[in-house]
Amino acid sequence: MSLDTVVEDIREEARARAEEIREEADAEAEEIIAEAEADAERIRDQKLAEAEREIEREREQTLSSAKLEAKQERLGARRDVLEDVREDVETAIDELDDDRRHDLTETLLAATLAEFDDDQEVVVATCEADIDLLEELVDGRDATVGEPVDCLGGVVGESDTSRVRVNNTFDSVLEDVWDDELKNLSERLFDQ
Fold first, then answer.
1. What SS3 class is residue 120?
2. Strand order in the sheet with 164-169
3. Which of 97, 95, 75 is nearest to 87 (CA)?
4. DSSP secondary-structure letter at 158?
């Protein structure tokens, strides 16, 4: 065998070995690429799921905030309507005709005086506009009219001897009725 043949055999063997190494490298590279693509797909799916969860969380948060804001707006509007109704009631009380005002004040005066013992000196008061009416109503009763008070009308009674104060003003009666009937009023106004 000649040296050329040996050299050619070695070259042939080297080429075959190089081809084998190249095929192994290509196979390993394909495996690495497949693993990288699988990892990339898994990471992409994971990031996509995280993004979808974040979008859903933000959507729920935004929806919740919008619902809360809408509820606050409705409550604010209802509060405004109730304030308007209350103002209308106060205006109606303030504008009572003389006969109705007389009858209501007389009833409230009797209820006020009934809270005191007969031997007590009672001072009763009302708003500036109803002083003359109250003076007419206490005539012949054990009471005197005091200084006007800030109210829509009705009667406030006080006695120094018992330190009792009875508030039977239209304002206090309205407040009691308003507190007792607010739920019913709200249901009627807002159909709940």
1. coil
2. 143-145, 122-125, 154-159, 164-169
3. 95
4. E
Cα(154)–Cα(90) distance, integer angstroms? 13
- Residue ranges in the chain whose pLDDT is less than 70: 1, 162, 192
Q: How far apart (Å, rounded) are the C-alpha atoms in residues 185 and 135? A: 36
Rounded Cα–Cα distance for residues 120 and 122 (Å): 6
Extract the tokens encoding 173.
Answer: 């009666």
**DSSP-H helix ranges across the chain:** 3-94, 98-113, 131-138, 170-190
Q: In the prediction, which pLDDT does 153 show?
A: 93
> Which amino acid is located at 185 in the chain?
L
Cβ count within 10 A of residue 71: 10
Token pair in block for residue 26: 């290509």
Which pLDDT does position 124 carry in this prediction?
94
Determine how many CB atoms are found less than 10 A away from the CB of residue 134. 24
